[in-house]
From TrEMBL:
The keyword Transmembrane belongs to this UniProt entry's keyword annotation: yes
Superkingdom to which the source organism belongs: Bacteria
GO cellular component: membrane
Domain Integral membrane bound transporter: 184-302
Protein name: Integral membrane bound transporter domain-containing protein
Annotated InterPro entries: Memb_transporter_dom
Chief localisation class: membrane
Keywords: Membrane, Transmembrane, Transmembrane helix
Species in which this protein is naturally found: Chromobacterium sinusclupearum
A matching Pfam family: FUSC_2
Amino acid sequence: MAALRRLWTTHCDGYLAVRVLALIGPALLLALAGGGERALQGGMLAVCCLIAMERGRLGWKMGMVQAALALAGCLLLSRLWAWPLVFALACAAAAELAGRLGARQARWRSVANFTFIPALYLGCEAAQAGAPGLTELWSAWPWLASGAMAAWLVRGLAGRRDAPASRPGVAPQTGVAFACVGLLAWLAAHFQLPCGQWLVWSGASVCVGGFAAIRDKCWQRCSGAAIGVPAGMLLALALQPSPALLMLLGAAAMLTLALFRAYRPAFAARSALAAAHLSLLGGAAVIRLLDVGLAAGLVWLMLAAGYWLAQAR
């Protein structure tokens, strides 16, 4: 028993996972009871807001600001999808800003990332569904607002009280996130790529610093996807699609954002759940692997071009 406890504490963040479950559990029950996707959308926003507040150790005022920004971002990006260039500039600016903030304080990058993630995912999913999806997102406003408020309350009532020592993060390569994420976002919106949000985030998530940091993050994501996507496709073969099962897979994917301490197993688990979800819907789950590889390759190409130009001066 002691060995299992050590294994759990070493690899899993039980503190944050319990609080995420306190948010996603009721959202899943409400979704199954008739709230549908709108309830899960509110749950996703709640989870991301809570992670941002916890990892950024935000006070109640800044926590409210973060929740409001995440909520506004969901609605903004869903509208900007119709204008690929504007959508690309907005995503590029958000990714570059996350890097700049992370260079000043390491914890601020988590705040920026988990504000951008729900805005990108919920906004893109609604826009890709066309007019019904946009109508559904706007009708989900009370659910989204409730999710943001629930995260703020959980953070205020049961969050960590101690603030970490301020420490600078890793300075990113100037302009790499802006250029790469902007190009990927334009490709996703212009060509109406399925699951385009995966492609955009795959670029934003690896622009984490210098050459070594980007190399390590690319390897973690590529290896995690290479393990998770085939596993998810095999899992889908053993399952029968149903609305309840699809909602359960979505809720489980949100839990992986907080459960694992290490990034690679967390991303492998998310990739498996996403691949199973997409396979059950009749889609091509390999898209997730292609998105991760394409984004990593573009970032590497951009870095190589930058170093070559610097040497050519």
